[in-house]
Specification:
Distance between the termini: 36 Å
CATH superfamily of the largest domain: GntR ligand-binding domain-like
Number of strands: 5
Strand order of the largest sheet: 2-4-3
Strand content: 5-15%
Number of helices: 10
CATH architecture of the largest domain: Up-down Bundle
Largest sheet: 3 strands, antiparallel
Length: 220
């Protein structure tokens, strides 16, 4: 039985700050707030129907994520992704995910493998924007479950950080190239290597998935 993406990613946000952060981050990932656009605290507060305080707190977190930068007396600038940024993100992902997956082949438990496999059964509608956003999140969590199974906390934390940078690229991959089915194929290959405790196959699957994604985005 497939898991509904809406059920798995029911936000359950408990604070106005969390809600403001989540909604603003979504608008940046999807390009609704375009790179180079200046965001005003007061305008965002009006847009979200909240006071300035949770918006300010959310923007501070987004600044920490490098999704916006503060311009004194003007507001917050949505950061741009240069060609150099794109190459660097993919290079770091390749190094870290390859290492994490190889370690996971050696160390993954049955329970951890079951947690990874759960993501193969997610059901979503690629015609719905909200489902695409959930699938970007699910893809991140799939790879982080594998990193967690490496039993190397620092490696997990570094990957968690690089996926913040990667989410705008991944949303583009989904919307421009219709990549959900490609991602599903890539995930199945990685899981098969984990099941078979095959380091070479795991490394090859990760490398192919990342390099193909880089090629798709750079061909736009």
């Amino acid at each position: 039985m497939k898991t509904d993406a809406r059920e798995l990613y029911d936000e359950g946000l408990v604070s106005l700050r969390q809600r403001a952060y989540h909604l603003l981050k979504q608008k940046i990932i999807t390009g609704e707030f375009a790179p180079g656009e200046v965001l005003s605290e007061s305008e965002l507060a009006d847009l979200l129907g909240v006071s300035k305080t949770p918006v300010r707190e959310a923007l501070t977190q987004l600044q920490h994520d490098n999704l916006v930068s503060l311009i004194p007396r003007k507001g917050y600038l949505v950061t741009n992704l240069t060609l150099k940024d794109i190459h660097e993100i993919f290079e770091v992902r390749l190094i870290l995910e390859r290492a994490a997956t190889i370690l996971a082949v050696e160390r993954i438990t049955a329970e951890e493998l079951a947690a990874v496999e759960r993501y193969l059964e997610m059901d979503f509608d690629p015609t719905h924007r909200e489902d695409l956003l959930r699938y970007v999140q699910a893809n991140r969590d799939f790879h982080l479950e594998i990193a967690r199974a490496s039993h190397n906390q620092r490696l997990y934390e570094y990957l968690d950080r690089i996926f913040i940078d990667a989410q705008r690229l991944q949303y583009m991959d989904l919307t421009i190239w219709g990549a959900p089915w490609v991602w599903q194929r890539d995930h199945e290959r990685i899981v098969a290597a984990l099941r078979n405790h095959d380091k070479e196959a795991a490394a090859a699957a990760v490398e192919a998935a990342i390099e193909e994604a880089r090629a798709r985005l750079l061909s736009v």
